[in-house]
Amino acid sequence: MKLGIMCGMPLSGKSTFAKILQSQGWVRVSLDDLRLALHGQIYKAEAEPLVWESTELMVRSFLKSGHKVVVDTTNRTRERRKRWIRVAKEFGLTLEIFHVDTDFETCKERNRALNRLTENVLKQIFKEFQKPTSEEGKIVNVL
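and the corresponding structure tokens:
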């Protein structure tokens, strides 16, 4: 049983790495996939509390079943990561933080090709992003 979270900018390669973990036996819980399943959109502000509560419930259920779980989303601020630190502690685990440190220009180029976010939203997320620290868990740098 392990709990890991992806941490990085949109289009940094988090989901690609999380899918590699999934192929190695981890259960991948993707907030983007859950959003699409719940309301058919990549983001809907009024649904976010339900998305996060549902994600936590899924993560807890998988952990109770003894699985290794990775939460696939940006986890871009210390505040957002606190939820997972708390869950890890409740299960007696050290949170593993898979930090994908892709530069802004690369994310911007990928976004331009895929057209997922406006450039202003991407800039705002980049501005808000807080690098994870060892006080939050075990940092695993993903290249």
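(Above: one complete record from the training split.) The mean pLDDT is 95.
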